[in-house]
Amino acid sequence: MAILGKLVKAGLDITAKLQSSDENPQIEQENQLRELLTQAKDTAFGKYYGFQEMLKSDDLINAFRKEVPIFNYDQMHAQWWSRQERLEDITWPGKPDFFARSSGTTGKSSKRIPITNDFLASMKSVGTSMINSLHDFDFPETLFESEVLMLSSSARLEKNKHGFEEGEISGINVSNFPDWYEIFYRPGKEIAAISDWDKRVDAIAEQAPEWNIGAIAGIPSWVLLMLQRIIQKHNLKHIHEIWPNFQVYASGGVAFETYREDFEAICGKPITILDTYLASEGFISYTGTANTMAMKLALHHGYFFEFIPFDKRGVDETGELLDDPEVLGIGEVEVGQEYVLLLSSCAGAWRYVIGDVIRFESKDPPQIKITGRTKFFLNVVGSQLSEEKMDKAILKLAESHQATINEYMVAAIKNESGDYIHQWVLVSDLSPEGLAEELDQLLKDANKNYSVARSKALKDIQVTVISKDQYTDFLGTTNKKGGQTKTPKVMKEEKMKSLLEFISQP
Q: Which domains, from first to last, does the chain contain?
């Protein structure tokens, strides 16, 4: 494997020298849109919205915006995607080979996102670009001699009544790995196909001593549990006792910062953290520059992006899109500004609202951070709490107690008097005494709107603390353990009450 490491590292060095970074992002994106419209012009969607005529326009992007409306999932599914199981050429040529199930963090039932062969190829292309970017990190050759552990959802896909295979996107990706991936991919397709999360992690822990893991990818909460299970099973002080070459962790799905301290605690030496934005709708961005968690947008991999300002130009007080929001292109965005992301892709998504809010960290190159979900904007009584503001308050609370709080949930609920309060549930081993007052003050200090709400309509804040085991047991009751499951940080009142009822049981 040593010679392989040298060859791979040399290959990355050569690729980095050959790649050009002089392309204009605005031109790149217009070219992507033109290619997407050309490929889809003969589909039912393309004919309905006049892609053929649109392609003749001198201002392609404005013509596209004028003719094609903005779609959320419910609209896209009802009007177009629901027909793709029976008919061909609906929103993309042919039929999708797979459907990715994604309840995400806010939906009541699973979304079903079409996955085409072109789309799978685009995701692999973004992954290749991410690997090529490792040249800039100057990792040692031992990284390229080792194996990659991807903690995905189950790779055992299910057939629906129309014969299409369904699963979470990470499971679909793993199931489509070519056989030669088995040389370096762990835990391997056999273990990855185990549907039961606990049994899959037990199998990983059993095999762990036989592997030489250099990189791990997956959602932080579940990767952390897996690593803790391995450490416990083999009576280790830290994970580097069994995997000395573990150097890179590719995070994704949720903000990493609330997990950083716990990851440092289970490592024997520093590791490099990369962030990824890999959703059912696409591999949107990845960390491609050393010493930052900002992510480079995948501008030339079959995606066309648009950006709606996450302020009064684009959304109302609850974070919902306006009927006619301002929409910007890649050349019009501003560093430091938050935007709701729109995506058109080779999966047949068109001007599709993914539901994420991003912020530009730089424009040259275009790099972003995810600051939250549009549905994680808690503003029932004017508190205007974004996910990022809540994360910062939780981190400060944890720091003041020299503890960790990985996950949390919050909801605006009515108390017995009919007044709104914020009910928080923190996943930690802290004593709950005094936490409500501390968290309340941190939020007041950080957010003027929250402070005003607390003096008027928001009457109280309550904090309940639960253990990690209680949290994962609750997810087990909703069949949401492992895989791509993300913490629903902002809950509806009904969901919060069901959580409180669950944890109150003896």
A: 2-21+119-286 (no CATH), 379-504 (3.30.300)
